[in-house]
Amino acid sequence: MNRVFWVKYQTNQPVKIETHYVGDHERRRPLSDVADVIGAFFQGVSPAELGQYTLHAVVNGVEGPALEADLLLSDLSTGHRAKNALVIKSKSDMDVNDSHVSGVLPLCQLTSDPCPPMTPEGLWKWLHGPSTPNSYEDIQDSKVVNQGEINENYPIEFPLAGRDESLAHIASCFLRTYEHRASKDRNKRPIPVCTGVPGLGKTRLMEECSTTVLDMTGIPGERMSVIVSFGNDGNAYSWLDRRLGIQCSFAWRVLHLIFKAHFTYEGWMREKSPPNRSELTLRLVLSTIDHHWRQKATGKLLVFVGVDEYQKLGQADLSLLLDSLCDL
User: Fold this and answer.
1) H or E segment and range at residue 153
2) Using an 8 Å Cβ cutoff, are 107 and 98 in contact?
3) CA 194 to each of CA 162, 172, 201, 257: distance values in angstroms, whole numbers, following the listed order
4) Closest CA to 201 of 232, 161, 236
5) Which SS3 state, helix, strand or coil, does residue 141 take?
6) 249-284, pLDDT tens digit by residue?
7) Which domains does the chain have, with CATH numbers?
C-alpha cells in the first residue's frame, strides 16, 4: 500500500515522498525504512555521504531524537502531513542556515558578508559585489526585442506555423493577467499550460511567448525572457530542489538564469549561495531584476517566466510552484 510522508531538511520547505511512487522517478523497490526515506530525499548521493544525515519526528512541535535507520516506515505515525513533516539533520549538528554543510552540498560564502540583506538592493549588491566583478549579466544589453526586429536582423529560417489558435489563446491569458495584475483573485490572472507528447513543439511555443505573443497583446515595455527547465539539460530537477523546497529553489533558478547563467546552476549554488539562501522568494527575485533594470534604464520592463518539463516535479511540488506563481 502506498504511503505518503512529508520530509524537510532543517528549516526548509517540506516535500512529499511516496513509498510506492511510480512515474518519472520510478523506484526499483518501495521505500521500507528510515534509511530509504533519506536516500529518496537525496537521490543520487552516495551511501557514505548519506550516513551523515538523520531523520527526526516532530510531535506537538517538539523534535524528537534521531530515528534508527532500520526503523520500518509502517511503525511511524507522524510525518503524514506537511505540518508535522519529518526533519532531516546532519550529525555534525550544523547551524540552522547550514552554512558549512559538507558532502552533499558544500555551500561556501560568496563575499566577506555571508548573509546579504534579503531586499532588492541588498541582493543586487551581493550579486554585483567586489568578489564577483563583471560576473553578472547586464539585463539591459540582453533584453528581448519584438519579433519584427528579430526578423529584420536575424531572419528565422523555421518560423512557427500552425499554432495561431494557441498563440491567440496565450495572448488572451497574458492580457487578462496584465489587466488584473493588481487583483488578488487568481481566476482573473490565468496561467496558460501546454501539454502533449514529446516533440510536439511545447518548448518552441514557449519561446514565442516573449516575442510573438507579447507583440500580439500590444502590452508596452521592454522584455526579458526566462525559461526554467527541469529537464535533462544540465539543470534537471534534483535533490537540490527538494532540499531548498521547490518555491525557494525556483526563485534561485530564475535569479541564476538572469544574472549567473554562465555558471551551472548546481555549481553556482554549491560555491556561491549565501547561508540565508532559504529566505529567497520569487517576488524578491523579480524586485531585484526591477532594481537592476532601473539602474541603467527607464520605462517598463516585462519579464516572461516559463516553466519547461514541469512534469518532472511531481504533483506535490508542482502544486507548490503554482501557488508561488499565482500569489505574485
Assistant:
1) helix 147-153
2) yes
3) 15, 15, 10, 22
4) 161
5) coil
6) 999 999 998 888 877 888 788 778 888 888 999 999
7) 4-90 (3.10.20), 120-160+219-326 (no CATH)
